[in-house]
Fold:
Amino acid sequence: MPLHVIDHPLARHYMTILRDRDTQHQDFRVAADRLTQFLAIEATRGLADEGVKIKTPLETMEGSRLAEKIVIVPILRAGLGMLQVFVDLLPEVAVGYVGMERDAATAEAASYYCKLPPLEGRRALVIDPMLATGGSAEAVIERLHQSGASAVDMACILAAPEGVERLEKSFPEVQIFTAALDRELNAKAYILPGLGDFGDRLYGT
Ligand code: PRP
Ligand code: URA
Structure:
């Protein structure tokens, strides 16, 4: 399974802002947005395009336009923080929502909401800032496959090796795009060195 880790000084800069415990709500949101922009560019690199004839003010030329409509699936709640960047970038994008919450004691993810557009034969991209044990992403990817998605990829801001390995085992063909790959999970399944609870820091809960 291909793992793509963004390698860019600006991504490291914004990741450090996210990680810093003293970063306040507003700056956290801005840094998350910037990192999502990098991820959106990388995760859409493989989209199909097609030639289109246009006239510039000077002459006729063969341009290019997107020939594939993908479905973006944010995992609620924290994944919502990445959604706007993708919606702004992608023409005619469809959005599916899946709510997943980890149990505080066991870190087991359970689904509490699901609303998906037609997926038959379409490519889906799951977005969630944190890939920790991989339980939330695994459940959502499974659901998208069952709904007929032709391919599913995953974009996250921060990944743990445990989550990457889990997805690799379950779905060897899924591509993971992340802005950083951290060391390990702690006993409570939080990513180390990590950035804490993304949803809480993004929404101030
Ligand atoms: C966080 C995060 C992921 C999940 C990752 O969500 O946004 O969805 O944990 O952990 P996993 O890989 O071990 O499943 P959380 O359950 O805290 O809910 P929230 O988005 O509502 O904050
Ligand atoms: N979810 C988070 O928000 N942070 C972690 O470190 C792990 C899961």
